[in-house]
Design a protein that fits this description.
Layout lengths: L7 H16 L24 H12 L7 H9 L5 H10 L9 H7 L13 H9 L3 H16 L15 H9 L4 H5 L4 H6 L5 H12 L6 H11 L2 H15 L6 H19 L4 H12 L6 H24 L12 E6 L2 H11 L5 E6 L7 E4 L6 E4 L8 E4 L4 H22 L3 H21 L14 E2 L5 H14 L9 E8 L8 H4 L10 H12 L1 H6 L12 E8 L5 E4 L8 H23 L9 H5 L17 E5 L13 E5 L9 H8 L1 H17 L1 H4 E3 L4 E4 L3 E4 L9 E2 L17 E5 L2 H10 L1 H8 L4 E6 L2 E6 L5 E2 L3
Parallel strand pairs: 1-2, 1-7, 3-5, 7-8, 10-11, 10-16, 12-15, 16-17
Antiparallel strand pairs: 3-4, 5-6, 8-9, 13-14, 17-18, 18-19
Length: 784
């Protein structure tokens, strides 16, 4: 057993620095359940400008757009002098420009490019001309792809070992580094300490990383591993959500440090440069004047958007009488266009917004598999179990079919058989390839069997669950004869990021299961009989129907799972309204998509070569929780999350607390992922779709190996000429008393932190108009 010479009083400091560095890495969810993640999750305890200084040091990225984009907004009138002046006044940093004139002068000078502090691998590459970073990433990526595989590979090396132990066993037989010039590397690994913690301590001593340098030096090395470290952070996230822990991220840090100490020993000529780098890591993280200026400009851009939004939200548009139709959509920004067009079909149509899992925290077993998928936000644990399993014969047939499909896919793509497949199946398979290339494949999201809850709920539990959901939806009175519960999903073809287009509130699944389960629950006679005891009186003729909105084609599928013979005429009328609204929504969305028309959107869903089937949530910039009357009839351009909320019916403000701690946080993750993938795509973006290869069912790499790429592909945020996403921090607008909002923030430090540090902006509405702006430290100011 190897021991470390690190002084006892330094041991805890170094290991604490390693834990701190691990917390700076955001999780990356696997491809089968991709949900948006705030890439700055580890920096939420500091503001944008200090996070920019930190990530500039460890990742070489800027956290704001180029100054040319601000100049363009000023020229277009999107940023005014008033916006610039207000942002300048709001900044408390001493390095800010002294006045508006100097600020405007500095805008015309581009900021210097950020540069990360070098690793030993970077210094060795400069000294020797051998790209050690590329060699490291290829060797590490080859091992990681096998070790973390989630069912794509036919064989996984020692999956039961810890990451550190598995890598040591692998790397002692990998001669690639030695062939490249790193002599004795296999022996170096064989002699490494037997645990990751000891390896970290030994490397810290050999590399001269004292406690002051450790946090950002370790952060730098984890960032250098790209999406692999983010996958390890997801493993820790999942373990902690279940009440446990996971050491994989620490293991990866140890592996990366072993490479560093080996390279420093091999190339002592870089020692002086490395010592200077260590001294730079030990210095406090402090923003530069350029980073301060860019943060002020970013605030000004967001104030410009808020000013525009305030003009659109000019007060309520009240509607009287019983609605002819109510339709509850997910708060997803893509629903805003469809909701507006549906309401335009008839004055009696009212839409609502609610998180797309519809308040049912279920773990679901799909037809033909025992695998369980969570259909709820990533912040929550499932409390209910549901299934779409049918009779034994159908289940067996489905499982055999799925296994045959997997086997065929593996044969078709395997290195040995792929050429034989082309020779044998080429002529017959050519027809399918031609249909796929022309976008003539099957369109539409195929409905699954009727899901049902396996968790046994008593009649009282059914009524209590339904009452809680209906209150949270502000759907407690004056209900229509038909109420649609509209989940959403996206049909795409040949797209590894498919789940990223589905419902984030459903854990990267479609909203079909959640909508159908809730409709069944709300139509259940036992549920309806118990609701009055909870103060909710639904009309006797109110019937709930589940539906699914395909956000690529804007088609809406209805699921009449519960017979409703008295509503046949109503359903026919609704189908006509939905069809008309779909056509209008497609025509509106097509204006944003390159080369698209309203009709061509239908084909994009089946086109295997389509890189932009839709824009997803690109453009998201606001979250509004208010009665629908505050936003009805307003064209919000598909950029706002819309959540129904009536504070006057919220006794004790429990629903307000739920909104601020769940949907707002999920929306912030989405907003900031699009933000990070746009301003820092080299670290937080998914790269180029054209050269993606799926690895292990986890994520994608560019080409045939190397770093795992987290985040959104470039084609999801850029149209090839200009960004499709305007990177703005989310403006959260809540129609509620400031005192009530303040009390919720007082109870939830992590949520308050997002607003105090400026990762989100917060406004209080009054009757649909902006009344106050949150400053920080539980204080409010005027609307500007």
């Amino acid at each position: 057993m190897n021991t470390t010479p690190v002084a006892p009083d330094m041991v805890s400091a170094i290991l604490d620095a390693a834990k701190t560095a691990a917390r700076t890495i955001p999780p990356a969810f696997p491809l089968d359940a991709t949900v948006a993640v705030n890439p700055f999750l580890g920096q939420s305890g500091e503001d944008l400008v200090h996070a920019a200084a930190r990530l500039g040091r460890v990742a070489g990225v800027s956290l704001t757009p180029p100054r040319a984009s601000y100049r363009a907004k000023i020229a277009a009138g999107e940023i005014t002098d008033d916006d610039l002046a207000a942002a300048l006044i709001a900044s408390t940093l001493p390095m800010k420009p002294r006045d508006l004139a100097l600020l405007k002068a500095k805008i015309h000078v581009d900021a210097p490019q950020a540069a990360a502090l070098p690793t030993v691998a970077d210094l060795a590459a400069t000294s020797t001309g051998t790209d050690w970073s590329a060699i490291l990433h290829r060797c590490f990526g080859l091992w990681a792809a096998g070790h973390f595989d989630r069912g794509q590979a036919l064989w996984t090396p020692r999956p039961d070992n810890t990451a550190y132990a598995a890598w040591r066993e692998w790397a002692t037989h990998d001669l690639t580094p030695e062939i490249a010039g790193l002599s004795g590397f296999c022996a170096h690994i064989a002699q490494a300490p037997d645990t990751a913690e000891r390896a970290i301590l030994r490397a810290a001593e050999r590399l001269g990383l004292a406690k002051d340098a450790g946090p950002t030096a370790f952060h730098r090395l984890l960032i250098d591993l790209g999406g692999w470290s983010q996958h390890a952070r997801w493993l820790l996230w999942q373990a902690e959500l279940a009440g446990g822990t996971d050491s994989t991220l620490t293991d990866l840090l140890a592996i990366r440090l072993i490479w560093e100490e080996a390279l420093l020993a091999q190339y002592p000529q870089v020692t002086d440069h490395w010592q200077a780098t260590v001294a730079a890591h030990a210095a406090p993280v402090a923003p530069t004047p350029d980073q301060v200026l860019d943060a002020i400009l970013q605030d000004a851009a967001e104030r410009g958007h808020q000013r525009h939004l305030g003009a659109v939200l000019s007060g309520p548009a009240e509607r009287a009488g019983r609605p002819d139709l109510q339709a509850a959509f997910c708060i997803d920004v893509r629903s805003e266009v469809m909701r507006r067009e549906l309401e335009a079909q008839n004055d009696g149509i009212e839409t609502l917004g609610f998180a797309g899992f519809f308040g049912l925290p279920v773990a679901h077993r799909q037809h033909g598999t025992d695998a369980v998928q969570s259909h709820l936000p990533a912040l929550l644990n499932p409390a209910l179990v549901s299934t779409s399993h049918t009779d034994a014969a159908s289940e067996t047939t489905a499982r055999i079919s799925a296994r045959a499909t997997r086997a065929w896919g593996r044969f078709r793509q395997a290195a040995v058989s792929s050429f034989a497949f082309v020779e044998a199946a080429g002529p017959a398979y050519g027809l399918k390839l031609m249909k796929d290339a022309l976008g003539s494949g099957t369109t539409g999201l195929a409905p699954g069997p009727m899901p049902r809850l396996e968790t046994d709920l008593s009649p009282e539990a059914k009524a209590q669950t339904a009452a809680s959901i209906l209150r949270a939806m502000s759907l407690t009175q004056n209900t229509a004869r038909l109420v649609l519960l509209v989940g959403h999903g996206a049909q795409v073809t040949n797209n590894p990021h498919e789940s990223g287009y589905h419902c984030g509130a459903c854990g990267g699944q479609t909203g079909e299961v959640s909508a159908r389960l809730l409709a069944a629950l709300l139509n259940d006679p036992e549920t309806r009989a118990g609701l009055p005891q909870h103060g909710i009186h639904l009309a006797d003729d109110t019937h709930f129907v589940a539906a699914l909105h395909d956000t690529v084609t804007d088609k809406v599928t209805l699921y009449p799972d519960t017979p409703a013979p008295d509503h046949t005429t109503d359903l026919a009328q609704v189908q006509g309204w939905l069809c008309a609204a779909s056509g209008l929504a497609r025509a509106e969305r097509a204006q944003r998509l390159p080369g698209a028309t309203g009709n061509s959107l239908l084909g994009r869903a089946a086109d295997w070569a389509e890189m932009r089937p839709e824009w997803g949530l690109a453009g998201c910039a606001a979250f509004i929780a208010a009665p629908r009357s505050a936003t009805a009839g307003r064209d919000l351009k598909g950029r706002a999350f819309l959540h129904n909320y009536d504070w006057r019916a919220d006794n004790g403000f429990a629903t307000l607390e739920l909104i601020l701690t769940a949907p707002v946080v999920v929306a912030s993750w989405i907003s900031l992922q699009y933000y990070g993938s746009t301003v820092a795509p080299q670290v937080f973006g998914g790269g180029n779709k054209l050269i993606h290869n799926v690895v292990g069912g986890i994520g994608v790499v560019q080409g045939n190996g190397g770093q795992l790429r987290p985040g959104l592909p470039w084609q999801a945020v850029h149209d090839g000429e200009t960004p499709a996403h305007d990177p703005l921090r989310l403006s959260v607008m809540i129609d509620a008393p400031t005192e009530a909002i303040t009390e919720v923030l007082r109870k939830h430090d992590q949520v308050r932190q997002l607003f105090d540090n400026g990762w989100l902006h917060l406004f209080a509405l009054d009757s649909g108009k902006i009344r106050a702006r949150y400053r920080s430290s539980l204080t409010w100011g005027d609307r500007i």
